Amino acid sequence: MSQEFVYIMLSDTGTLFTNVIKTYTKAPYNHASLSFDSELKEMYSFGRKNPKNPLNGGFVKEDILTGTYSRYPNTSCVIYRLQVTQREKEKMKRILEVFIKNNHKFLYNILGVIGVSLREPIEFSNSYFCSQFVADILYRSGIHLWDKLPAMVTPEDFRNSPSLELIYEGKLYDYLPIKNVMTRSQ
Q1: How far is it, in rounded angstroms, from Cα 136 to Cα 65?
Q2: What is the dihedral of CA 135, 140, 141, 143, to 10 degrees?
Q3: Which of 77, 147, 175, 183 yields a CA-CA distance of 20 to 30 A from 160?
């Protein structure tokens, strides 16, 4: 039986919004994304739908080469690997299909971010913030990394999870698999 993995990337683009969050959280990373491959080609989260407009948020398939990250070349990140079963990974992809097919129905849960700071979950149907989304996909697939609701999970919770294996920390565009993809695309 082959080993299956999913990848969780935490990042800091250095934008005004992320700097405001960092001022409060004191955490180095404030955005969480879920990927199914080590090159981060298939990566999902809740964030900017348009790289130029921070106010239009929701479910996004993130593209490192042409999306929001391309506007912030000094983005720093940490990438973790989580070993999962084939069944868990297949379940995650099935859950994700609902998001992909209905992406226009999902909104960014800015009040949920405030709820975390107040230690009170604020949840709405079809509304997530980034770490809530990643935690919810894992939770609904049978992976329970924490004893808390997904609406209370922060990027820092991923950093502190003993279940995640650190595979990279540094500048996003210095991550070797991405450097290789960028070299091939030039």
Answers
A1: 26
A2: 50
A3: 175
Got the DSSP string for 43-67? EEEEEEEETTEEEEEEEEEE-TTTS
Contacts 24+ apart (CB under 8 A), 121-126: 121/149, 121/151, 121/152, 122/151, 123/149, 123/151, 126/102
In one-letter notation, the amino acid at residue 168 is: Y
Residues ≥6 apart with Cβ < 8 Å to 35: 6, 7, 8, 9, 41, 42, 43, 44
Instruction: Report the alpha-carbon distance of residue 171 to residue 76 in Å, rounded.
Output: 4
With b meaning 16 or more CB within 10 Å and e meaning fewer, what string describes 131-156?
A: bbbbbbbbbebebebbeeebbbbbbb
pTM above 0.70, yes or no: yes
How many whole angstroms separate alpha carbon 97 and alpha carbon 137?
11
Per-block mean pLDDT, blocks of 10 residues, the chain (186 long): 90 84 85 96 91 83 90 95 96 97 92 85 91 97 96 96 97 91 72
Angle between helices 86-101 and 130-140 (to 10 degrees): 130
